[in-house]
């Protein structure tokens, strides 16, 4: 008995031969196979099998011809190439669906995994992307705010103590601030909390929730010059007990806020007069400002602030400054020599992108010396007017502006132009342009506004098959009717 038990306990998965492992792998997901390849040399050999990746390729992209993706390193590399080109929007046949709005400017857009959320003045609108792609537009308009929505943030329900069931943890919470002095918390299309306390319009919300304990806090900044901390899990629909602290110190309206990456209780705020304050919210009280642990100032009107690890990046006026939050010393002072209109940061590749007039500029932080004039990695030319919208991810950069109806897509590493996409239905009229952009994986939504009814244009590249030719000018995207549903399963970085 003991001998049999010993024999069974000594059997390992690596005792299976490669053919047996390959057969088992056909029941695994892409991420499972990828993780298996990193386990050991024996499992890696099985996980790299062309048989497995050929099957995964055909499951993921049934309309694509694998023969178009020959790769000397095998079918797995061909899968990665297809995944990469789709993430780069390097196709001219995405599925396109348009929604004509009432012409009021769309100021903010969020593209969630299954919904498009956008604001027009005081109205909050939601569209299900699943119904959208099937041609059934189901628009939910929420008019709880009675003045212009100034900011929208989306947080995972798993970050809070509000989720009561495991099935809810993948859902999201939406928070909006408004000129009506309120902040509203939304879940599944309904307002479940309303927070009031600012003595004026609420101008901005923190980009992340504060704290690493059970009770997470939301920070808001207002035109009254205060920063306020709220418990989003407080009881009562009106949020009477939600206000946890009011932080004083700014003498002008608070414009932007960001939460530190290395210490989740540190909050950075910048006011309209470019004064920067750092707050340790773990030591805050209900009325005192003693939790201010650092102050500085930058030149020019603030454009954007981003925290990464212990660094704070501030784009203001004609410069980008990086400040070490541990010492409050400047570690980078980059003069751009033109007024900034937008800013985005991609820490994983040490890249930043700035928006100017008629162009955006890509910079490599590793090539910038704090005492020397910065040289750009690439000039992203071809826009009209100010570039006010920038999206960056490891695959692509997307840029646009309110005076230009063309949204441009660039390769992240080189700044080479990949695609140019019209954000309106027909040839743009004078004054039409892109008022907002949101990108999520293989999908993008743009808002066009101007002298005509506004257009919300949704593009889904997940089943695109026609690669943009490299030997001709970039064509406009066209309509393509695909009936296959896209799979949410992706491979990232492998």
From TrEMBL:
Repeat (WD) residue spans along the chain: 195-234, 247-289, 380-420
Q: Provide the F-box domain boundaries.
A: 15-54
The record's annotation in Pfam families points to: F-box, WD40
Extract the PANTHER family matched here. Answer: OS01G0185400 PROTEIN, WD40 REPEAT PROTEIN
**Keyword set, alphabetical order:** Repeat, WD repeat
Q: What protein name applies here?
A: F-box domain-containing protein
Top-rank lineage group of the source organism: Eukaryota
């Amino acid at each position: 008995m003991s001998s049999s038990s010993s024999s069974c306990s000594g059997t390992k998965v690596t005792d299976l031969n490669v053919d047996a492992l390959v057969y088992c792998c056909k029941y695994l997901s892409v991420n499972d196979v990828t993780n298996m390849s990193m386990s050991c040399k024996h499992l890696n050999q099985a996980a790299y099998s062309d048989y497995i990746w050929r099957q995964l390729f055909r499951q993921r992209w049934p309309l694509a011809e694998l023969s178009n993706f020959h790769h000397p390193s095998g079918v797995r590399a061909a899968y990665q190439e297809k995944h990469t080109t789709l993430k780069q929007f390097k196709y001219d046949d995405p599925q396109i669906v348009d929604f004509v709005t009432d012409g009021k400017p769309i100021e903010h857009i969020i593209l969630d995994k299954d919904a498009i959320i956008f604001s027009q003045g005081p109205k909050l609108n939601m569209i299900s992307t699943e119904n959208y792609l099937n041609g059934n537009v189901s628009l939910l308009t929420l008019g709880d705010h009675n003045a212009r929505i100034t900011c929208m943030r989306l947080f995972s329900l798993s970050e809070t103590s509000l989720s009561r069931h495991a099935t809810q943890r993948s859902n999201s919470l939406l928070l909006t601030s408004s000129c009506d002095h309120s902040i509203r918390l939304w879940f599944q299309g309904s307002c479940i909390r309303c927070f009031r306390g600012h003595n004026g319009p609420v101008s901005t919300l923190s980009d992340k929730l504060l704290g690493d304990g059970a009770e997470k806090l939301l920070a808001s900044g207002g035109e009254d010059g205060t920063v306020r901390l709220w418990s989003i899990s407080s009881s009562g629909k009106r949020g009477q007990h939600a206000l946890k602290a009011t932080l004083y110190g700014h003498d002008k309206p608070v414009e932007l806020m960001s939460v530190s990456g290395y210490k989740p209780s540190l909050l950075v705020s910048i006011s309209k007069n470019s004064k920067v304050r750092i707050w340790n919210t773990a030591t805050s009280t209900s009325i005192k400002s003693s939790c201010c642990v650092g102050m500085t100032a930058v030149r020019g009107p603030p454009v954007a602030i981003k925290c990464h690890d212990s660094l704070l990046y501030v784009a203001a006026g004609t410069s980008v400054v990086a400040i070490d939050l541990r010492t409050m010393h400047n570690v980078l002072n980059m003069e751009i020599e033109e007024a900034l209109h937008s800013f985005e940061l991609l820490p994983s590749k040490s890249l930043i992108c700035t928006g100017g007039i008629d162009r955006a500029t890509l910079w490599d932080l590793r090539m910038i010396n704090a005492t020397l004039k910065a040289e750009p990695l690439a000039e992203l030319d071809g826009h009209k007017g100010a570039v006010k919208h920038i999206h960056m991810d490891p695959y692509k950069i997307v840029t646009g502006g309110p005076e230009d109806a063309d949204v441009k897509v660039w390769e992240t590493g080189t700044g080479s132009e990949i695609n140019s996409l019209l954000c309106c239905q027909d040839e743009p009229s004078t004054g039409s342009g892109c008022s907002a952009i949101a990108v999520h994986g293989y999908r993008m939504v743009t808002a066009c506004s101007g002298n005509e009814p506004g257009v919300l244009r949704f593009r889904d590249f997940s089943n695109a098959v026609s690669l943009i030719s490299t030997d001709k000018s970039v064509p406009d995207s066209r309509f393509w009717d695909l009936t296959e549903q896209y799979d949410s399963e992706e491979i990232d970085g492998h």
